[in-house]
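Think of the structure tokens as a kind of shorthand, similar to the way a musician reads notation: each symbol stands for something richer, in this case the local conformation of the backbone. In the example below we present two proteins back to back. Begin with the first one, reading the sequence and then the tokens, and try to describe in your own words what changes along the chain.
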Amino acid sequence: MAFDPTTKHPLYLAFAPFWRLMRDAFDGEDAVKARGEIYLPMKSGQAAIIDPIARQKAYDAYRMRAEFPELVAPTVRGAVGTILDQPSTIELPSALEPLREKATRDGLTLEGLHRRIAIELMTVGRYGVLPGVAQDGTPYLAGYVAESIINWDETDGRTDFLVLDETGLVRNRETGAWDTVDVFLECFIQDGAYTARRWTQTQNGWVADEEIVAQDRKRRALDSMPFVFIGANDLTAAPDDVPLYGLAKLAVRVYRIDADYSFALHMTSEPTPVAIGFDDPKDAVENGRAPTTLGSSKLWLLPPGGDAKYLEFSGPGLEAQSKAIQDALSRAVVFGAQILSDSQRTAESGEAIRLRLGNQTSTLKTIALNSAAGLERALKNLAVWMGANPDEVKVTPVTDFFDHALSAQDITALVAGWQAGAYSWRTMFDRFQRGELIPADRTADDELGQIDQENIERDTSADEVAALTPRAA
């Protein structure tokens, strides 16, 4: 049987629905509503409508009134902003220095690629990086989202087979039109060498390009696949759990409840007038004897013994739906969407904040470490390809996300403790440095030297002032 480049790994098929939900939840209301009944099932009353056009119009109105809460995208952006608020320290050999300004073929800087990796890990928990060398010898890194890494295999824990979906739009240079071209990159180890070929869908079926064996600067074949799997928890090939999947599910839950709530409001928010006493209501309406309009200029004539009143919904059911929405939004806060909370916490000590946010920041720390480790491994693989020393590559993320700035009261208390002999000056210096009062790159000896210099300058100024001060006769 012929090789089929579109075959997907069983784990890919298992995780694809999770990734789809996260993408749609991240993209927001328009993307979710475009999925129709996948996220918002049709009500039984709508499904019972026989006319398909009327049935669809009823569902469209039901869906249009609903609001999908924007929870996932702000949480992802906020988390990545926290992770990369201070950029990672990246050390590179000279051969890879150009990557700092242009790491990918689409122009991302190395820092920009790191941010993209972090966003993907927070969104779907998976990303891939394939190092490469252009024909002119320029190194680059190619990134692949989770949905593009469709098939893989390993032998003794080492990846030796991989298929990447590179399908995309290609402009027809003659007509200017854009067409979708199905392309898949197959990577594999053959005879101990890293080999790759591209498969393209044509009118005659799948056609493979010539196999290419990757070689380093000394024209030696690479003996391992340079592709790096980056997950939310580790750097293995198996997909990881999606960090914010629970938040996306809560968002869909709120969307469904809000659809019913908005539908009920639409159906019951306005009082309905009722006229009573007509023997044949249909005949009375057709012959203009029954009232059909409201207003001070419209006279209602009722038959003997007739009556008129309003039917109005009292609302207990709506209150329950509203409460359910608020409860779901409150649960969303637990998953990291603090931006939804409208309550201010009382003053907390730094240690109390650390304890309260410990579990939350553990996820951020894991993402920070894995994104940096994956980028570092990809750069090391590229260094080997370029004939550089991979040991010169190092990516060190910042994993302390707390604000350690000292207050005036903290500073006074620290100085008082030092003056009382409770701890040494160097201990106090370390605490000041961690509290961002003293620059992080300044040593204790440097600080003492500056203090001595200021004392000398202060004493000199005092002597000059004394010399210039007139003395009494």
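Once you have a description of the first chain, move to the second and do the same.
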Amino acid sequence: MRIIILGAAAGGGLPQWNCGCDNCNAARAGRIPSLTQSSVAVSADGRDWAILNASPDIRMQLAATPALHPTGPRDMPLRSVLVTNGDIDHVAGLLTLRESQPYDLFATQAIHDALAANPMIGALRADLVPRRTVALDRTIDLAPGLTATLFAVPGKVPLYQEQGEVQTGLVGETTVGVELKAGAKRAFYIPGCADMPDWLKARIDGADALLFDGTLWEDDEMIRMGLGVKTGRRMGHMAVTDTMTALDGVSIGQRIFVHMNNSNPLTDPDSAQTAQARAQGWQVGRDGMEILP
């Protein structure tokens, strides 16, 4: 199994277009790496690839990844795209992937329904991009030799679907994790998760690799920094500090944080928080990072 992190940032990327926080200014100045928005590519054979989440930055991500370059005038090694929720930073790139390129689009029924409610998604020709509805806890083939099983994780509906009181620990088809298998290798991709119940820890236990939600270092950091009015949990994300505590002692081969907000000190490779995460056995995802579970 090969996993390439195409984009390691949360929505908005780093630097975010309208943000003048220390991290965004440092990225603009080249003092810390810039990060594009959340997406990964996975393959079992290095020839046929699946993309998990189509970020708004997908065009530049594909251009920066030789393994995904076209192999002919209109041929490329993309076999499927799978989305883990309907958030804009995970689906807006589908509009870029509309140029008569065949691939299977996998999602739960709830996510397909959210996409279908936007008429622009009709630009993806159904005869070339068939919508494949995935039932929870059923295994599907993403690419030759690569399977995936979707399972519910605590989360919430996308921002554009929020109405009234929002459930941030909703467990259903709106936010899912992905269990990937290729040969004897088993990896998990969970870029959005609001809590870590015991059943989720038990499912992850023994994995060769885990790519997990690293949106915020601390739950209230955006409020403290004057960047927003919501906590991480209100946005449907666990704090990194809580995740490291919850998964301490769980058997996992490689632990990698992905989907990091521009406020997160993990975006700075030299920060004290990055050093703390590494000391606790975690890696920090970067654009272009390749993982071999």
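Compare your description with these statements about the second chain. The longest strand covers residues 146-152.
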